[in-house]
Amino acid sequence: MKTFYITTTLPYVNAEPHIGFAMELIQADVIARYHAQLGDEVVFNTGTDEHGVKIYSKAIEQGKDPQDYVDEYAEKFKNLVKVLNLSSTNFIRTTDDYHKKSAQEFWKRCLANSDIYKASYKIKYCTGCELEKTDSELADGKCGLHPNLQIEEREEENYFFKFSKFQKSLLKFYEDNPTFVLPDFRFNEIKRFVEGGLNDFSISRLKSKMPWGIEVPGDPEQVVYVWFDALINYVSTLGWPFDPAQGKPDMFSDFWPGTQVAGKDNLRQQSAIWQAMLMSAGLPNSKQILIHGFINIDGQKMSKSLGNVTNPFPLVEKYGVDVLRYFLLREIPSTEDGDFSEEKLVARYNGDLANGLGNLVARVATLLSNNFNEGFEFDEKLVDSETNQAIQDFITKYKVSIENFKLHEVLIAVWELIARADKYVNDNKPWALAKKDTEKFKIVMTNLVEMIYHITKTLAPFMPETSGKISDVFDFKKEEAGLEGRRLKVRKGGVLFPRIEQ
Ligand SMILES: [Zn+2]
């Protein structure tokens, strides 16, 4: 059996889950479900990033124990996984014991390869990003993403990671793996960054100043820097390094290397820093990094200061999970920035879901259930060559789109097929044929069922609940590869998407 491993980034638990991370989860879920549909054994990882100064200060500010604080937030993200109907198999927290041990072992291997050294450390630091900032990254001495925060100057003895050593190996690796980062323009961006030269960076903090982290092996005065610790989750979640005493199965040898989905703000960490860390620890590089854009709200950047950070929970409650999934996957191009507004969501709902998919399913199901009381016997030979060709083209298109991380293009293709089926109904008027030409009626209905079958199957990773409902109405059986020889007990479907009046 083929294995497939996909992971999201881990959100930092200093804020409520927002719609941008919901989109990342949903994108990863589509790819995970697609691979499961192909018959692969799938591991789908997500979780929470729980160390670092930002969390430590927030907890202190609220008079809470940091562990209690992160426990509270981890629950919210676990709940998000449930509410979004994700097929994830793993939920890792970087405060989990097995992760801490894995991170320490990873550190030891980098140290053994002479890629970690101690030096004095003086930098400009943005506590909003939890990142060092070079002068070129600052505008008027402020971080572009956090203009309200003061940039801090810091100096202390820290451990450093020899990032500079990996410039050549990274460039060689990129050259050997021409689709390592998708989309292309992000890949070019990271290549230019690495070509520009790499600076070693600090990977520890003094425990006396900031105790909320994993202890550096062999130095109880230091804790591991939050980014260095968090990135290791992608392998610790697979049980690396396998230790029977840990009680976690060894999935690393079967599932690594994996595919990673991340936002454009994570490009450098995932496709350069993490890759250099893997090289240093002597582990294989990731398989692929898929980079998505940001969601704007009503045309504006989502930000705390604008007060427009959109929470996915009430949207799911109001419209249903598949409506939010559909909107985010269809309206926002997978690798670009896109815009969210409730108005746009309602427009997509009424146009694409109520009038498009819902209407087609209802029309065809009603015709079948009214005219074939004993079930509709499906005969593949009755599918005409135009329909067959359209479906073949459709399948080719959706495979190419999904492999190239263009999930919105799959949905465009599905809705083209829906439009084709609608036109086919209007052109052939099956309700009239049912009375005067039963042979022709059977042919028309066979072609429609064939189209709806492929629509339903393709939609399953995108809108699992809706796809399941359509399968129930049409008596499609999930485990079967086709419909040949089936007698479908089609029933009248209820209204999948009742129109929303505006
Ligand atoms: Zn910042």
From TrEMBL:
Residues 390-471 form the Methionyl/Valyl/Leucyl/Isoleucyl-tRNA synthetase anticodon-binding domain. Pfam families: Anticodon_1, tRNA-synt_1g. CDD domains: Anticodon_Ia_Met, MetRS_core. It comes from the Bacteria. GO terms for molecular function: ATP binding; methionine-tRNA ligase activity. InterPro entries: Anticodon_Met (IPR041872), M/V/L/I-tRNA-synth_anticd-bd (IPR013155), Met-tRNA_synth (IPR014758), Met-tRNA_synth_2 (IPR023457), Methionyl/Leucyl_tRNA_Synth (IPR015413), MetRS_core (IPR033911), Rossmann-like_a/b/a_fold (IPR014729), tRNAsynth_Ia_anticodon-bd (IPR009080). Residues 136-364 form the Methionyl/Leucyl tRNA synthetase domain. PANTHER family: METHIONINE--TRNA LIGASE, MITOCHONDRIAL, METHIONYL-TRNA SYNTHETASE. Is required not only for elongation of protein synthesis but also for the initiation of all mRNA translation through initiator tRNA(fMet) aminoacylation. This is Methionine--tRNA ligase. It comes from Candidatus Yanofskybacteria bacterium RIFCSPHIGHO2_01_FULL_41_21.
